[in-house]
Amino acid sequence: MDLLKFLTNLSSDQIALHQLNQSIEAKPTQVQKLTQLELPMLMEAMNHNARTPQGAQALTSARETSRR
Asked: Is the N end or the C end of the chain the one with fewer CB atoms within 10 Å?
């Protein structure tokens, strides 16, 4: 299953939403909105960005920075 489909399906999985809500200390409505709207939009933007060498490099750099 691709990540975008997983995130889209997550919005209807109440147990997963509750666990995510507890792990990031957010309101259930915030988590549901995030999984329904923002995450798919972010994933699509990242996918679009990764189609160019410069965009792919920027994503790689961001990932490496976030691991530190």
From this structure: C
Number of domains forming the structure of the chain: 1
**Nearest one of 22, 48, 17 to 34, comparing CA atoms:** 17
Distance CA 6, CA 17 (A): 12
Q: Which domain holds residue 19?
A: 3-67
- Residue 20 near residue 6, CB atoms below 8 Å: no
Give the phi and the psi of residue 13 in degrees, each rounded to 5: -95, 100
Residues 13-57: tens digit of each pLDDT: 778 777 777 888 888 788 777 777 777 788 788 888 889 999 889
Give the integer Cα–Cα distance in Å for 43 and 63: 14
